[in-house]
Every structure is written in C-alpha cells, then in structure tokens.
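Query form — protein Ligand-binding protein SH3

QUESTION: What is the three-dimensional structure of this chain?
INPUT:
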Amino acid sequence: MFLLELLKGLPKWLIILITSATPVIEVRGAVPLGIAVLKMPAVEVVILSVIGSLIPVFPILWALNTLIEHFRKVSMLDRFIGWLFERTKRKSKIIDDLKLVGLTLFIGIPFPGTGVWTGCVAAYLLGLKPVPTFIAALIGTIIASLLMTAASLGIIHLF
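ANSWER: The structure tokens for Ligand-binding protein SH3 are given below.
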C-alpha cells in the first residue's frame, strides 16, 4: 500500500478524500481502505469518498477542454492522449448509447477502468455538457460507494 504509506500521518478523513480523488483508485479503493484498514464508520467513509471522488470532475473537464490541444503538440503526450482516448471510446459504448444514464452506470459499476476519471474523459469525447456530467458523476459515485461499502462489510460479493 504505497499510497497509504505516503499519506501516513495525515488525518484519516483526509486520507479518504485524497485516495478517492486519485485516478484508478477512486472509491473502489477508498471505501475498503476506510472501512477495513482505517476502521472508520461506513457512513463517514461513503460521504468522504463521494466528496473526494467529485473534487476532480470540473478540473478534469476544464483541463480536457482547454489543455488537450496544447498537450497534443508534444509527441509523447499526443501518443498517450491518443491511446487514452481510444481505450476510453472502446470502454464507453454504454455511455455513447445511453448518454447520461450510461455515464451514471459506467461510473457507478465498480469495475477496473470505470469511474469518475474515465467517465469524465468519455463525457468529453462524447460531447456531454459539464453540469449534467457532474450530476451523473455524483449519482454514479454514490452507487459505486454504496456497492463498495456493501462489499467491504461482506453484505455482497463483487468478485
């Protein structure tokens, strides 16, 4: 747990906020971390995880809208952005088909490669507007947090 070691010494609530705002980890890692490792109350973990996960939504959308053109001028970044966008397009068929409902489900289903960060990239690529994207991210993150809480408490088994 490299990230946990890096955040050692910070208040537990801040660890959950930072972890849930971190790409790839998001609520899928923050909820089990808070409940199983940090021994925090589940309700507190869910609230902090949802807040933390939503912190990057508008900055991601802003960055995608304003910085992508500049980044694409750098060969190495252009290759990475191209790879990321292609991967996201392949994984985001549900979003393309169902728009905001699809985005909500994409973010809400706690599988690898889904979540707020990838959902925001998909929303950008599909031309979804920022405020509806934020609302879909909020609902999807609540769903994912509740599913991960149930899994962390042994109520359901996701894998």
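ADDITIONAL NOTE: The two ends are 20 Å apart (CA to CA).
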